Amino acid sequence: MITKEAVDLAKKIVELDLLRDEIWEHLAEVAGEHAHELLRIVQNN
Questions:
Q1: CA dihedral of 14, 29, 40, 16, whole degrees rounded to 10
Q2: Can you say whether the dihedral through the CA atoms of 31, 32, 35, 38 is positive or negative?
Q3: For the CA atoms of the chain, what is the radius of gyration?
Q4: Do 22 and 33 touch, CB atoms closer than 8 A?
Q5: Distance separating alpha carbons of residues 13 and 33, to the nearest angstrom
Q6: Domain range enclosing 25
Q7: What CA–CA distance (Å, rounded) separates 29 from 11?
Q8: pTM of the predicted model, to two decimals?
Q9: CA-based angle 30:15:39, to the nearest 5?
Q10: Number of folded domains in the chain?
């Protein structure tokens, strides 16, 4: 049986994924061709 909590968590993951896509598009606009490199640098620090 799938609980309400599990459904709520799944919904949050979908919302976060959509937000991540929006933020990535904004980063790509701001950082241009350096977006991937910048993201890797920030992730590794």
A1: -10
A2: negative
A3: 15
A4: no
A5: 28
A6: 4-43
A7: 27
A8: 0.81
A9: 30
A10: 1
Amino acid in position 29: E
DSSP letter for 44, please. Answer: T
Token pair recorded at residue 13 = 């993951």
Q: What is the pLDDT of residues 1-43, one digit of tens each?
A: 999 999 999 999 999 999 999 999 999 999 999 999 999 999 9
CB atoms within 10 A of CB 27: 16
Q: Which two tokens stand for residue 30?
A: 């701001």
Q: How many CA atoms lie within 13 A of 38 on its CB side?
A: 10
Can you read off the two tokens belonging to residue 6? 């599990």
Q: What would the two tokens of residue 1 be?
A: 């049986």
- Residue 25 tokens read as 């598009």
